[in-house]
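Re: beginner question about structure tokens

> Can someone show what the tokenized structure looks like for a real chain? I only ever see the sequence side.

Sure, here's an example I had lying around. Input first:
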Amino acid sequence: MNICALSGGLDSTVCMALADRDGPVLALSFDYHQRHRVELVAAAAVARHYRAEHLVVELDAGRWGGSALTDSGIDVPRYEGPSEAIPVTYVPARNLIFLSVAMGVAEARDADAVYFGVNALDYSGYPDCRPEFVRSFEATAALALKRGIEGRPVAIRTPLIDLTKADIVRLGISVGAPLALSWSCYLGHDRPCGTCDACALRAKGFAEAGMSDPALDPGQ
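And the corresponding structure tokens:
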């Protein structure tokens, strides 16, 4: 068995498709009181598509704040193009916490790997999406887990980390990922807002891949 961190977004949906090809997979989602909790509906739909067990872990990141995704007092900005600054949509320690929980679930279920759909090319500049973070965390987890001490460390697989958004779109289509079920927007509820980082990067990926977004145009 493998674990796949499934937010319900484009990247994690493609990652779920790849994990499913490798055998039984448990979909792991997080309700961290994000303002776009609608993504959990998408995650559930993707998990059902693959007939996978769907485990949702709740934690309230809003209690420590510091992010436009968890603090209603901080506005989600419009996307203004690439920037060197880390945006206010960064959630402090989110992927550090998510991977820690995923590793715990993996050990409890005796899973061999955690699939994590982070991307370090077309992304918002979050520090916890970088390959050096993932590799460092994997090494630390091997020291912390019983499986690691026994010589069976849990691997972290990041098959999308070196891909552009267009590459991810093409890969998702090639493996039959249900992209129409995915949700990427930080703001919208019925339809994506089209202006936030997540919407802009998703639109960029489909445009550069020369394809229509099936989530916006179900007829495609």
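Each token stands for a local structural state, so reading them left to right follows the chain. The chain has one domain: 2-209.
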